[in-house]
Amino acid sequence: MSGNNESATRKSWQELQAAKKVEQDSRIPKEWKLKEADFPPEDTVDLRPFVNSCDILSPAELAITSDQYDATALAAAIAEGKFTAVEVVTAFCKRAAVGHQLCNMLTEIMFADAIERAKDLDSVFKSTGKLAGPLHGVPMTFKECFHFKGYDSTNGYMSRVFRPADRTSPLPELLQAAGAVIISKTNVPQTMLVAESHNNVFGRTKNPVNSRLTCGGSSGGEGASQAFRCSALGVGTDVGGSVRIPAACNGVYSYKPSFGIIPMIGYSYSGWAGSNTGIPAVTGPLGHSIRDLSLFTRVVRDAKPWNFDPAVIPNIMELGVPDVRKPVVGVIYASGLTPHPPVRRGLREAVAKLKAAGFEVRDFNPPDFLEIRDISEQLFTLDGLSYPRQEFAKSGEPVVPSVQKIGFLDLPRKTQEEAWQWNTKKLGIQKQILDEWQRVGCDVVLAPAGPHTAVLPGDWTSDIYTVAWNVADYPAIIVPFTHADPNLDPVDANFKPMHVADQKNQDMYDPELMKGAPVALQIVGPRLGDQQLLKDAELLDSVLNSAA
Question: I need a surface site. Which of 95, 123, 294, 464 has the fewest CB within 10 A?
């Protein structure tokens, strides 16, 4: 990052927060701002329909940004000349402006630069008839933890405000070279280790589907952006569920790849650069269809990212897979914590649909997910969170409630010998999962995305259903499937807890509060079987979300 922020850090964190808000607000054109009288009532649950009545988007712009088009369809429409890049990018910038004013999901807003970039794309297309690439004119958003030259990379730390990056991270550069237009970065939690999106720099992001509930995290701003359709495709990162939990909370699709599939080199760290806990973070997309997740992956892999990121494995996604197969599906109904009634119903209905369509379904019995969570939380805190503590001390900012609640700050620093011991336990878990996969003889595993749907902000403190697959390093895809319904999902009067934590989890269930919350499914594939998983998941999604 260029320059320094000595003058900035001499200000109080509250002064820095106010100044950052002024900067952010200045990047939204006046004509795209909502009047105070235009905001929906405070108790409005579903904030998404409001974009249709606020008169900021034209009917044509509402159509462009509607669910009529996923990223794949938009790219095709631009290539065919149905829309210009400027028309599409402007429409999504306007929609993102409305979404942000309602839900607070954006961080570094890039609307002006995005529209100029779209003009350049249109000019080249008009003069040459050639597209910049397969994402020509497709508006994208990125999680806060990527660098963009000229914009801050705070990652929600007040100590890092007003320190614009002097370079753009390689992954967004790759996607821009393929024609994508980045319109904004999106919100994250303080420390990046919480299934929430709240920090002192940008505040808390609301869930557009049910504004009373969490948007998830750590890619929660991205999950909310996709739910509101602020962009056609988003990018997040995942070390414990951070692209999957927000997708589940907001009812969109996401993909956590195996390590080595998508480049991460040169992104903006939220902890010590070069730290190695034994559970690697990965980058993955969030979007509106599985074919969009595949499009993103194909574009990235076609650019041969192993030529600039030594952690990327060459050719592993290029080996080819069978055109058609009916995967054997293993099913995890519960492990560690009993899921809430809507999640249990979702799994039952999904299994019934798959069986009716002729899929073979087998029970999958993994190691105890709570035991896996015990390992992951120790590995995530090897340094005792010394980096966040250092950054908090620089600015004097307080710890936000969700970070305090998850408890990582209470865990001690580990010695090197203890780190080795915890990683040995991790390897034991990996072996148990592999052995069970072989015993069951499945191709994919169907599992809950979490022990509940979206809950109250700050209450998603257990990532056991997602972090297990980070520990194992297996790819996983989130598929939105149904919604919580008080009539179908009453409180389980016959529930018998396995332990105290199981009872505490079940006590969070409130049928009326969670009414309408998305219920998602998680589809998992074997390590480095990403190409086949994307194909299998698309087939399964066509069955699970068919009208029949």
Answer: 123
